[in-house]
Amino acid sequence: METSVRAHIEAVKNGDVKVDEFIEEVLEKCEKIQSKYMPFITINKKAEATSQKGKLAGLPISVKDSICTEGIQTTAGSKILEGYIPPFDATSVIQTKREGGIIIGKTALDEFGFGTFSTNCAYGTPKNPNDPTRACGGSSGGAGCITAAADFPHIAIAQSTGGSITAPAAFTGTVGITPTYGRVSRYGLIDYANSMDKIGVIGKEVYDAALLLSVISGYDPLDSTSSEEKPENFTSYVGKDVKGMKFAIPKEYVSDTTDKKVVAGFMKGVEKLRSMGAIIEETSLPLTKYAVSSYYLIAIAEASTNLAKYCGLRYGLQQPIVGDFDTYFSKVRTAGFGNEAKRRILLGTYARMAGYRDAYYLKALKVRGKIIKEFKAEFKKYDALIAPSMPILPPKFTDIDKLTPTEVYNMDILTVASNMAGIPSLSFPIGKADGLPVGFQIMGDHFTEGKLIQIGSSLEAK
Amino acid sequence: MEHICLLARLNLTEAEMDKYARELSDVLGAFKVLDSLDVKDEPAFHPIEIKDRLREDEVKTTKWNPLGNAKATDQKYFKGPKII
C-alpha cells in the first residue's frame, strides 16, 4: 500500500482508490499494529469514507484521546473518563472531517497529558516501533507510535502542553509541529493547563504535518484564546531553501546533561544547514535553568483546578450514589485518578493554597514573562533557534521505572520554555544513534510556523 | 497532607500519604531554584496577548442531550448525592 500522503490524496481525487475498501484494509492494519505496539485506546471500527474531496480526501487521521470526537469514546487516558462518549466534535476534528479526513482511532497518552514517556497510561502503554522495549515519549505517545508504525498514509492530531509533541516525535522518528499558542482552536480539547495547551500534528514527513496544520489552524469563536492571525497554506513553505537564514544554538541546550550521542546527531543537522548556506551561531538563554520549575508550577496549578470538575456525576466514571456529596466525590476521584494525576492534584492544590500562591504560582507567571522576553530578544537577531529535541535517546521502560518524579520532570528541560512562551516548534528526525531516532528541534517566534516548515523541509531534502 | 487531601477531595491511606509527602517535598525542593531569581515583571497569565471577547447574550439550543452520559438522572435533572 502507498504510504505517501500526497500521492494517496491525489489518487483518491483521481478516483484511483476505492476509499471504502482502503479504509477497511487500514483498520485491519491498525488491529495488527495495536497487537504489537498499542498506539490506540480506541480503534474506530465504524470509520467510513465521508467525502472524496477536500485537502485530506480519503486520508486516515488519528486523534489523541484528549480531543473530543462525536460518538467515539474519549478518555484523556484516564479511568475517570471511562465510557465518556462526547456528543460533539472538537473544532479541529470538524475541520479535519470537512476536508475529507477519516478518523481511524483515538491514540494513547499519559493520563490527561501528565508525562514525558507515555508510561502513565490507564489503557495500556504504547511501545516504540523502533525498539518495543523502549518508550514512545509523551504525552502524545500513541500519536507518535502509530505515525511511525503505519504502513499506510496517515497523519496524527496530537497535543502539547510542555513538550508532548516534540518528545514523541523525537523518540519515534517522526515530524511533530507544536504550533503557536492560539493558532489552533482548543475547543473540544480536555484541558491540562489552559494557558499552555496547544493542539498540533505529527506526520511521517514535513509536508504531511504542514498539510494537517493548514487545515486545523484559524480563529474559532468557540475558543476565546484562539488567534485571529490569518490561516496559511503551510505546505507552500515546503522546499523553500534556507540560504542566508540565521540560526542560533542555545548553549544551555547542548550542555553536559544532554546525551553526547544526541548532540552528535544534532550536529549533523547543523552541518547540513550550514552546507545549504545558513549562518549558525551560538547564543545563551540563561533563564533555561528556571524553566522546568516555573513550567511545572503553572502546569500543576492549572491542572489541579481543571481536574476539580471530575466528580463522577455527569459523565465518565460513575458509581452508585452513597453518602453525602464530599464522600461520593472523594470516592470516585480516588478510584478514577492514577498516581501521577493524584501527585499533580496534590502539588497544584498546595501551590494554590492561601499563603503560598504568591510564592509559587504568581512567581512562576512572572518568570514566564521574563522567558518570553528572552526568546523575543533572540528572534530579533535570528530566524530560529535550533537544538536537540530531547536530552536522551528513547529510554527503556525498565530505566524509566527507576526515575523519581523530579528526575522525570527534568527530562522536559529542552521543551518546557518554548511551550511556556507559546512559541512554535518543529521536531525533525535527523538520523539515528545506536539504531534509535534523534530529534532536531527548531523554535521560532510566535506565528512563524511557515519558517519552521521551510527549515524542516530543507533538512529532509537529500 | 491531610488538609491538602481534603481540599483535593482524595482519600489516601497513611502509606500513600507518606509516599506522596516525600515526593512532594522533593519536587518543591527542586522548585526552590526560583528563589534565587529576582522578578519584578508583570505575571504573564497567557503566552500571547489575549483580548476580551464578549458575545451577544442570546439563547441557543443544542442538538445533543446534556444528560446523555449520566447514569443517575431524574426527568431532566442530574441526580447527585446529598449536599447538606
Spell out the CATH superfamily of chain A.
Amidase signature (AS) domain
- Could you name the CATH topology of chain A? Amidase signature (AS) enzymes
Overall radius of gyration of chain B: 22 Å
Query: What sort of overall outline of chain A do the alpha carbons produce when their principal axes are compared?
Result: globular
What's the story with the biggest beta sheet of chain B? 2 strands, antiparallel
Describe this structure in words.
- The complex is a heterodimer of chains A (462) and B (84).
- Chain A is an alpha/beta fold.
- Chain A is built from 15 helices and 13 strands.
- Chain A has helices spanning 5-13, 19-37, 91-98, 141-149, 166-172, 206-216, 260-275, 288-306, 325-336, 339-351, 358-381, 397-400, 405-410, 416-421, 449-460; strands spanning 40-43, 60-64, 102-107, 127-128, 131-135, 155-160, 175-178, 198-203, 246-250, 279-283, 384-388, 425-433, 436-443.
- In chain A, strands 1-3-2-6-8-7-12-13-11-9-10 form an 11-stranded mixed beta sheet, sandwiched between helices. Chain A has a two-stranded antiparallel ribbon with strand order 4-5.
- In chain A, helix 7 (260-275) links the parallel strand 9 (246-250) and strand 10.
- In chain A, helix 8 packs across helix 11.
- In chain B, a hairpin with a 2-residue loop joins strand 1 and strand 2 (77-78).
- Chain B has a domain at 1-35.
- Chain B contains 2 helices and 2 strands; from the N terminus they run ααββ.
- Chain B is mainly alpha-helical.
- In chain B, 13% of the residues are buried.
